[in-house]
What we know:
Radius of gyration: 21 Å
Number of helices: 15
Helix content: 40-55%
CATH topology of the largest domain: Aspartate Aminotransferase, domain 2
Order of helices and strands: HHEHHEHEHEHEHEHEEHHHEHHEEEH
Structural class: alpha/beta
Largest sheet: 7 strands, mixed
Bound molecules: pyridoxal-5'-phosphate
CATH class of the largest domain: Alpha Beta
Amino acid sequence: xAIKLSNRTKLIxxxxxxxxxxxxxxxxxxxxDVVNFGVGExxxxxxxxxxxxxxxxIDANFTRYTANAGIIELREAIAAKLMRDNGLSYSxxxxxxxxxAKASILNILIAVCDTDDQVLIPVPxxxxxxxxxxxxxxxxxxxxxxxxxxxxIQPQALQEAIDDSPCAKxxxxxxxxxxxxxxxxREELETIAEICVKNDILIxxxxxxxxxxYDDVKHVSIASISxxxxxxxxIVNGVxxxxxxxxxxxxxxxxxxxxxxxxxxxxxxxxxxxxxITQKACVTALNDEDDSIENMRKEFWxxxxxxxxxxxxxxxxxxxxxxxxxxxxxxxxxxLANNKIGIKxxxxxxxxxxxxxxxxxxxxxxxxxxxxVRFSYANSMENINKGVTRFTEFLKEISS
Length: 400
Ligand SMILES: Cc1ncc(COP(=O)(O)O)c(C=O)c1O
């Protein structure tokens, strides 16, 4: 007889982005020309100056376990970055380096949540937040947002969610956002911080897309709003997106000592330290940044404009212009209500689009929003053109 799985794992579904990428790869291997808008990672290679540092670390035999929280020179480099970019002073002892921002968030949730504590999650959300909440034995509480409000939580909705949740303990805030590309302004963050401080809610501020903002938009860390806000915030960030280092696996958390300490103990008995070579490469990535990082941002910016302009030309597609990250999440509800082939959900739409027009994208239901789809523009201009043209043709075909 097969061993019965835990109740916990029964609640956890596979990541839709990873399963979609696997399907698109399978089709490609079968010789099909698939345009994949499902990907959540830069299509650029890791910059040369970072790779050189990794080679050097291997040659110097820097290959053993390191301190669980990360080597001191890396935590110093992160502290310097937090001061340089965010005006925030953290001691290296209040920084925990983990194998990816994903691991950072789970460590923090396990460190602060007791069974049945509630974690406030604005919708749309990154797919991982609810599952990590469940893994920490806590309960997700969703806060709805509207496209007309730029998919950002409104103060009243936040206060109501707190009032209705007697065990509310954490708010997970993600700016710039995956999947919408929304970026919170300083004024908006001030109000959110004030509510969280007043109600003693810990903010996990996922700032992984911090560097990828466009136009004249500035990223603001909610921890920089006030000392009280800083005391109620754990910043989570990493190198995956801005430095094109997704496969190297390094993220970090910075926050109040007792929380970082506890999260470190969790890590000590799970993954332990991050790969030693990655750590050395990241010291160089942060301390010796060259213009390759800014060049990638500028390229994403061009692609965002190009893709957004193409999408805006399609009748009955409603789209909010993203200000950051590398995603666009248009609303295609009109086509779900007005098509002649019986498509009713965005998930079914995505299946058919991949099958018939060989374009892969993730349905918005995975992020908590029905009637929408998520495009990633971490893709070449040529592919953006080809893929959005196919998407447009598919919409025309099903609705005419
Ligand atoms: C919002 C958000 N946070 C965190 C991560 C995870 O980043 P990492 O590669 O550092 O684990 C991602 C990756 O897709 C993300 O979109």
